[in-house]
Amino acid sequence: MYSIAIDGPAGAGKSTIAKSLSKKLGFVYIDTGAMYRAVALFFLEKGIKESDDERIDKLLADLDISIKYVNGEQRVFLNNIDVSSKLRLEEIGKLASKFSAVKSVREKLVALQRKLAERENVVMDGRDIGTVVLPDADLKIYLCASSGVRARRRYLELIEKGFDKSTLNEGEIEAEIIKRDEADMNREISPLKQADDAYYLDTSDMTLEEVVSKILDMVKEER
C-alpha cells in the first residue's frame, strides 16, 4: 500500500488538495479532521466537555465512526448516522481542536486511521499524520499559507456554503485561525509540526492546480 501524509494548520488547503490528489491518483482520501469533528459533535450532543476525562473514556466505547463514499464523495457516519453536513460548522471546528488533545480520543482515532491505511492506498490529511499517525508514510507534505490568506479562503468558503456576508468578518476569522494555530502547535499530545522528512509547501501564492501538480511530481520522484 502507498500512503501520502498531508499536514498543516487550519485553512492551508489540506482537504481540497488531498481530495483532488486522491482522485487523480485513484487513492482513497481520508479526512481525519472530519473524524475529530464527528467526535466533537458526539460529545457536544451529550453535553460533555473536553475536560471530563472520566465520562469521555466511558462513552468512547459506544462511539463508532465510519467513512463511506457516496457518488465519489466522502461521507462521515457517527453511529450509523450521516453527519457530514454538520461537521463544517465553526463551533464544531473549535471543539474538534479541543477534543483532539484528549489522549483517549486521539488513541482511538489514530488506531482507526492506521487500519484504513493498511487496507488501501491513501491520501490522509490532518495535523499529525506524518509525525504520529503514519510516521512511515511514503510521501509527507507540510502545507502552509499566511494567516491572512487562510482567513480569506475560509471567508469565501463560508459564503459559497450560503452564509450571509453581513454575519462574517475576515478579521475575526483570521484572529480565530491564529488562536487555533497556537492551540494546535502548543498542545501536549501530538502538536502540529512539520515532520523532519516532509516537503514544505507554502500555498499562499499558488493555485489548487499548481499545488496538486507539484505534489504529483513528488509522487513520481518518490515511487
TrEMBL record:
Keywords: ATP-binding, Cytoplasm, Kinase, Nucleotide-binding, Transferase
A GO molecular function held by the record: CMP kinase activity
Binding site for ATP: G8, P9, A10, G11, A12, G13, K14, S15, T16
Catalyzed reactions per annotation: CMP + ATP = CDP + ADP; dCMP + ATP = dCDP + ADP
GO CC annotations, alphabetized: cytosol
Family to which this protein belongs: Belongs to the cytidylate kinase family. Type 1 subfamily.
Protein name per the record: Cytidylate kinase
Organism: Lachnoanaerobaculum orale
